[in-house]
Amino acid sequence: MHARVFVILAVLVLAGLSTGCGTGNTDGGTFPNAATLVQVLITPSNATVQSPGTVQFAATAVYSDGTSAPAVFTAVTWSSSSTSVATISSNGLATGGSVPVVPTFSTVISATYLGVTGITNLTVTPATGTVQEFSNGITTGAQPGGIARGDDGNLWFTDFTGNRVGFITTAGAVTLFSSGITAGANPAGIAAGSDGNLWFTEFTGNRIGRITTAGVVTEFSTGITAGSQPSGITSGPDGNLWFTESAGNRIGVIVP
């Protein structure tokens, strides 16, 4: 009887020792299958922040047995590939830097833990009120006047003194058109029409002009009183173009 009890106790002790033993990892946990660190995940992934805002990143350690755990923050080394776009502190807090409106700026955020590195992207958008100016492609002394969004995704504008109509892409590339615009017409206001074209006023030319997104210009003068000086123009709820006559003291409408 006593021998049998002794055998049972020995089995229980051995079972307890086997379940309590394991190969430890550097996080202080136990992994019976000798799990190793295989990946570091960073959250949030591919974040966006408006300058000078901040983003708190965290690193998660992923092991070969499929388990994961938060990386010990004191053992994580954080870095930013472009510190002018964003900096990051030793505890993973990223701060957006001063960036222009275009182009879009981003940096690669890295977290290295026990020799394994994880990465993610951080995009930084400019602070509210940030101004960026463009002059390349605009003729000196052109005096840009009106501006409107075209159906082609570009911004169309008038060159009052330059006597041209042009567009600028959201990347800042400028294209100008002068063919078909009467000399000295002084394009002023501009608006997108319901027909997909851009319509503009000719302040001195006393006409309304239409320009396609390919740059083909047509001028209209019939019905506009001489010396009226058409200036502002906008698309109306009726689908027509409405314009002001500065000297004529009238409001005009033209059908696209």
CATH class of the largest domain reads: Mainly Beta
What is the CATH H-level superfamily of the largest domain? YVTN repeat-like/Quinoprotein amine dehydrogenase
Computed CA radius of gyration, to the nearest angstrom: 34 Å
Share in helix: under 10%
Contiguous helical run count: 1
Q: What amount of the residues lies in strands?
A: 35-45%
The number of domains is: 2
Separation of the first and last Cα atoms: 109 Å
Estimate the mean pLDDT confidence.
Answer: 89
H and E string: HEEEEEEEEEEEEEEEEEEEEEEE
Instruction: Note poorly predicted spans.
Output: 1-32
The major sheet is characterized as: 4 strands, mixed
Number of strand elements: 23
CATH domain topology of the largest domain: Methylamine Dehydrogenase, Chain H
Shape: rod-shaped
User: What strand line-up does the widest sheet have?
Assistant: 4-12-11-8
What is the CATH-assigned architecture of the largest domain?
Answer: 7 Propeller
Overall structural class, as computed from helix and strand content, comes to mainly beta
Kindly describe this structure.
The protein has a four-stranded mixed beta sheet with strand order 4-12-11-8, with no helix packed on it. It folds into two domains: 26-125, Sandwich (Immunoglobulin-like); 144-254, 7 Propeller (Methylamine Dehydrogenase, Chain H), CATH 2.130.10. It starts with a helix and ends with a strand. It is rod-shaped and about 90 Å long. The chain contains one helix and 23 strands. It is mainly beta and 256 residues long. It has one helix at residues 2-20, and strands at 23-24, 30-31, 37-43, 47-50, 54-56, 58-63, 68-70, 76-80, 86-88, 93-96, 105-113, 116-125, 144-149, 155-159, 164-168, 174-177, 187-192, 198-202, 207-211, 217-220, 230-235, 241-245, 250-254. Helices cover 7% and strands 45% of the residues.
